[in-house]
From TrEMBL:
Gene this chain is encoded by: trmD
The protein's assembly and partners: Homodimer.
Family per record: Belongs to the RNA methyltransferase TrmD family.
Alphabetical GO biological process terms: tRNA N1-guanine methylation
Protein name (database record): tRNA (guanine-N(1)-)-methyltransferase
One Gene Ontology term of the molecular function aspect: tRNA (guanine(37)-N1)-methyltransferase activity
UniProt catalytic activity: guanosine(37) in tRNA + S-adenosyl-L-methionine = N(1)-methylguanosine(37) in tRNA + S-adenosyl-L-homocysteine + H(+)
Organism name: Pedococcus badiiscoriae
């Protein structure tokens, strides 16, 4: 998979050299290229923003550097291939595991990191209508970040780990939170009995030491239901709506 990221702070993307994503890059599974938007700004100050038409607070990202950056990405393909353009922003569709799975199917993603009050709307029109790109504005959640870079770190990590070969043990992807609409069960490791404070001993739930795989699976499923009901009741309601059942959480 090819991933291009365009930003005025390319250094922000440095963590994508680390850990599993860094290894996937070194293994050739992900070709991640980070571009400095200012390379495409040609005035003396290499400026990328200006005041908004119609007034209002803050600055807007100018169309010309963005258009040149996107033209450059499209021209970098040896053939007619086009990236899917992802623009992170609080006004986008919610980023979910389902959307991460969808993006992981794409052979080529380009992320455009906006800053300030956003990118001039005509850049989206240029991308869609002049360059023929599919454009997706995607939000991490209902809060405002200073720019798209942190969102790109999160999205690239969520997407890249779904690319075949990036995670060694593909089974570990199956039982995760959000893969089937429920949160994950609690996990424990050794020691079975742990003194967390003087005179306080905390035990691993006995069922996990029982060797009874059926009982363990049932306990874990119950834990997932209880956790989801406590922390994310909206997920339970959504999955019940999908299944057409209005029953209690345990059914
Ligand atoms: N940029 C600013 N806020 C954002 C958010 N909530 N999600 C994605 N990108 C953003």
């Amino acid at each position: 998979m090819i991933i291009d990221v365009v930003s005025i702070f390319p250094e922000y993307l440095a963590p994508l050299d680390l850990s599993l994503i860094g290894k996937a890059r070194r293994d050739g599974l992900i070709d991640l290229r980070v571009h400095d938007l200012r390379e495409f700004a040609h005035d003396r100050h290499r400026s990328v923003d200006d005041t908004p038409y119609g007034g209002g607070a803050g600055m807007v990202m100018k169309p010309q550097p963005w258009a040149e950056a996107l033209d450059h990405l499209v021209a970098s393909a040896p053939d007619e291939r086009r990236p899917r353009l992802v623009v992170p922003g609080p006004g986008g569709v919610p980023f979910t595991q389902a959307l991460a799975r969808e993006l992981a199917q794409e052979p080529w993603l380009a992320f455009a990191c906006g800053r300030y009050e956003g990118i001039d709307e005509r850049v989206y029109e240029h991308a869609e209508h002049d360059l023929g790109l599919e454009v997706s504005v995607i939000s991490l959640g209902d809060y405002v970040l200073n720019g798209g870079e942190v969102a790109v770190l999160a999205m690239v990590e969520a997407v890249a780990r779904l690319v075949p070969g990036v995670i060694g043990n593909a089974e570990s992807l199956v039982e995760e939170s959000h893969e089937d609409g429920l949160l994950e069960y609690p996990v424990y490791t050794k020691p079975a009995s742990w003194e967390s404070a003087p005179g306080v001993t905390r035990e691993v739930p006995p069922v996990l030491l029982s060797g009874d795989h059926g009982a363990i699976a049932a306990w874990r499923h119950q834990q997932r239901l209880e956790r989801t009901a406590a922390r994310r009741p909206d997920l339970l309601h959504a999955s019940q709506a999908v299944r057409g059942t209005a029953g209690a959480a345990g059914t």
